[in-house]
Specification:
197 residues; alpha+beta; duf1285 like fold; duf1285 protein fold; 2 domains
Length: 197
């Protein structure tokens, strides 16, 4: 563990808190607010400490396991003994692979994140599409844990689009995908397709 600690220069800080918290359970100790940990998750999903990449996936997964989102939207790493804020450029995770299966006639869509966490789209883990108001370029996301989303990468999004079907929603025709009996809109059906019908 010393080697891992020195790899990112977090001696006595967050990594020490993870080790101490795991060993002692954090019982009976006041949680220390460490302010800003100077950790950033880049748009591509890579983690950086003081602008240097954290190259060890095991270490990133350890930090990700204590990642939370506050009610004010701040991202924090929180151990049983301490907490501190980190910066996230877009979403803390990237969905890099899509798995499709049929479960008793119902489509089930599951995603693997860049940190090998699996999440199945359902009512608690919705897919949402944020459209650029000018270009209408989609930015798709899936909820991994409360307040923590994975941005769906372009290749996986194309797979989703290939599975999309038209449904009527609030009086308009939309394209979307089903998973676990829940419909997730992707975009409006293009007007020329409606006219062709």
């Amino acid at each position: 563990m010393d080697k891992a600690r020195n790899a990112v220069g977090l001696d006595g800080g967050l990594l020490g808190g993870l080790v101490t918290g795991a060993a002692e359970g954090g019982a009976g100790r006041a949680k220390r607010d460490c302010g800003d940990f100077d950790i950033r998750i880049a748009r591509d999903g890579s983690w950086h400490y003081k602008n240097s990449p954290i190259g060890r996936k095991e270490l990133v997964c350890l930090f990700a396991s204590v990642l939370r989102r506050d009610a004010d939207g701040a991202y924090v790493l929180e151990t049983p003994v301490e907490r501190g804020v980190i910066a996230v450029e877009d979403a803390p995770f990237i969905a890099v692979e899509l798995f499709w299966r049929n479960d008793g006639g119902h489509q089930v869509l599951s995603f693997r994140t860049n940190l090998d966490e699996m999440v199945t789209a359902d009512a608690q883990h919705p897919i949402r599409i944020q459209l650029d108001p000018i270009s209408r370029e989609p930015r798709p996301y899936v909820m991994v844990r409360p307040g923590l989303e994975a941005r769906i990468n372009r290749a996986v999004f194309y797979e989703l689009v290939a599975l999309a079907e038209a449904e009527s929603l609030d009086g308009r025709q939309v394209l979307g995908v089903w998973s676990q009996g829940v419909f997730f809109p992707i975009d409006d059906v293009p007007q020329h397709e409606l006219a062709a019908e």
